[in-house]
Write a structure and sequence with these properties.
Serine Threonine Protein Phosphatase 5, Tetratricopeptide repeat, 30 helices, about 0% strand, mainly alpha, disordered C terminus, about 625 residues
Length: about 625
């Protein structure tokens, strides 16, 4: 049984042998209360008490003759060094190997083709010991995966970060990154549900940024403009300044106001050049701004400088450049340059890693078809690889099926129609074995874009199995498809994004008006039949839901497309008067049809011919 020798304890203290050690018991605790914000770091606030506890144990061991004076001081010194290191690592990684590890991994992400990003993230995360190291590594990967659009992995990384002990500032930075990802996945409702509980962590400029984006997503352009103006006037953050300038340019462009919206774009570009951030978006916006305004020389100069400035280490970087080139040369009508870019993309496909090859090929299929360049070569490659693609995940199956269906239904038709139909049949046969509802359920709730794309896809293929059904079979199929579209409408109403809801309402309106045409022209059913009247009434019910949404931003360019579509559907519903009004609203916007999909050009041509008839000349 050990006993503490009080006399020795007092003697050691009197002789000064251990008085400094006893002082060390209290110094870290006192320091933690003196140092500003020390206790706000959850990784640090318990350290002084652990340190004091270990020093106390060492001193007790000394008092009961387990430790000599020499061994006591060695133990105290070692403990002090260990806790000093832990304290420093919890403050900054620069004293740790983890700092250099993050730099190395960041370089690898930016300059090397990685076949499996999930494996890369998970395997390297195991190398980090400190909470701060895991946070910095997670944030770096999150930023990269967001830029690459790898959202399922983004959600996993966010889950890992939320489990860490973070300071309020680290939470703030993470929340802004999370918000940006939620915007891209259209999970605005998920953000709104948590906003009140987390907004105390955000600075005032963060709140202005976040709330301005949410207002824009909800088509509240006046509020969005007001918040962006306030952000621009109050922020000292150069990045927020650039974002506000860019957002104001977008709003001004959408309104086609008398002010020169390009002024905001140029300010945004100038700011982004200074801070070397967000240069991609600002540059591209400004390039197409110059093209739109007819300043082709300035557009060409900026375009050439932009392309030269981009890295070309990885496949993704080279694809990004090629996509910018495609848009640019299409806007200029430069067919020769388009052929070179698409040829380069096809060469890049053959060099791509296994994980990137199939998505690359699917993208190329539609690109080559739309431009009528190398389509035969790419189609042959798809024929060779389709069986393998259909054995991959559902996301690729959905994608390739959508692209093939899009080509099959194109107004241009194809000399390879039989080959396209053969590919389509393969896809449909594969889909007969897939439970789409299960695939929808597997997706995260935050991945609104992907979930709604799966629901749309489910509706699209609902009527592809039967070729020439009887009228009763057709009505049954139609009813099933309309129910799925109702699911999509309910989904979009739940997530309260105006543009998504417009899209789903128009999808159903398209199906309703097409069915009316089929009933009359294919089955020769009278327009006074119950089936036809029911569809006619449903068409107007849908329009009654559509109009209030469009009125929120009636003059915005983003709504122009819907004026054209509504003009078409009014004509389908035998109301050419209202159709013509919306056709004029589209024409008044001065839309460059090169910016829109082929179907929009086709509808415009149809309506132009329709309203050119003498019988409608009195409009």
């Amino acid at each position: 049984m050990f006993e503490i020798n009080v006399n020795d304890f007092i003697e050691n203290l009197r002789n000064g042998k251990l008085w400094i050690a006893y002082l060390l018991l209290f110094v870290p605790i006192i320091y933690s209360y003196i140092k500003k914000d020390y206790n706000k770091n959850p990784r640090q606030k318990s350290l002084p008490f652990w340190y004091a506890g270990i020093i106390l144990i060492i001193l007790i061991f000394n008092s009961i003759k387990l430790f000599s004076i020499k061994y006591t001081w060695l133990s105290i010194s070692a403990s002090t060094l260990v806790f000093a290191y832990i304290y420093l690592v919890n403050s900054t990684l620069k004293v740790s190997y983890e700092y250099y590890l993050i730099k190395s991994l960041e370089k690898k992400l930016l300059t090397q083709d990685i076949d499996d990003y999930t494996d890369f993230y998970v395997n390297n995360r195991k190398l980090f010991i400190s909470q701060l190291g895991k946070y910095r590594y997670g944030l770096m990967c999150l930023h990269f995966m967001h830029n690459q659009g790898i959202y399922p992995l983004c959600f996993d990384i966010m889950d890992d970060i939320q489990k860490l002990q973070l300071t309020d500032e680290e939470k703030r930075v993470f929340l802004i990154q999370q918000f940006n990802i939620y915007c891209d996945t259209q999970a605005i409702r998920s953000w709104e549900n948590k906003y009140d509980s987390i907004k105390h962590l955000l600075k005032e400029e963060d709140k202005l940024y976040v709330e301005s984006i949410v207002a824009y997503q909800k088509l509240n352009l006046d509020l969005s403009e007001e918040l962006n103006q306030k952000l621009l006037a109050t922020t000292s953050n150069a990045l927020y300044k650039q974002i506000a300038e860019n957002n104001l340019a977008v709003i001004a462009e959408n309104r086609s106001e008398n002010i020169d919206w390009s002024d905001y774009s140029q300010k945004s570009f100038a700011t982004s050049q200074q801070i070397k951030s967000n240069i991609d978006t600002a540059s591209i916006n400004l390039i197409f701004n110059f093209l739109h305004s007819g300043n082709t020389e300035k557009a060409e100069e900026l375009y050439q400088n932009y392309v030269k400035s981009l890295p070309t280490f990885t496949t993704d970087q080279r694809i990004h450049i090629a996509n910018v080139q495609l848009i640019y040369y299409r806007q200029k009508g430069d067919t020769e340059s388009l052929e070179k870019v698409i040829g380069t993309l096809f060469d890049e496909y053959h060099r791509a890693s296994k994980s990137k090859r199939y998505p690359f090929l699917i993208s190329l299929l539609r690109i080559c078809f739309n431009h009528d360049i190398l389509f035969e070569e790419v189609l042959s490659e798809v024929e060779r690889k389709l069986d393998d693609i259909l054995e991959t995940d559902f996301s690729l199956i959905q994608w390739v099926t959508n692209e093939i269906l899009g080509i099959a239904s194109s107004r241009y038709g194809s000399q390879d129609e039989k080959r396209i139909i053969a590919l389509m049949d393969k896809c449909i046969k594969k889909l007969d074995t897939v439970d789409i509802d299960h695939e929808i359920a597997k997706l995260r709730n935050e991945n609104v874009v992907k979930k709604r794309s799966y629901i749309k896809f489910k509706a699209k293929i609902a009527t592809l199995n039967l070729t020439i059904p009887s009228f009763e079979q057709y009505i049954k199929q139609l009813s099933e498809k309309l129910k799925i579209l109702d699911q999509l409408i309910l989904f979009d109403e739940k997530h309260s994004l105006a543009m998504n809801l417009l899209d789903s309402l128009f999808l159903k309106l398209d199906e309703v008006t097409c069915a009316m045409d089929v009933i009359i022209n294919t089955y020769r059913i009278d327009t006074q039949s119950e089936s036809f009247i029911r569809l006619y009434e449903e068409g107007y019910r849908l329009i009654a839901k559509i109009l209030p949404i469009m009125n929120k931003a009636e003059n915005a360019l983003m709504i122009a497309e819907y004026h054209l579509r509504l003009a078409h559907y009014y004509c389908c519903l035998s109301n050419s008067q209202e159709g013509y009004k919306h056709f004029l609203k589209f024409k008044e916007r001065g839309i460059n049809l090169l910016n829109f999909a082929d179907w929009l050009q086709e509808w415009y041509d149809r309506l132009e011919r329709y309203f050119s008839n003498e019988s409608l000349s009195n409009h």
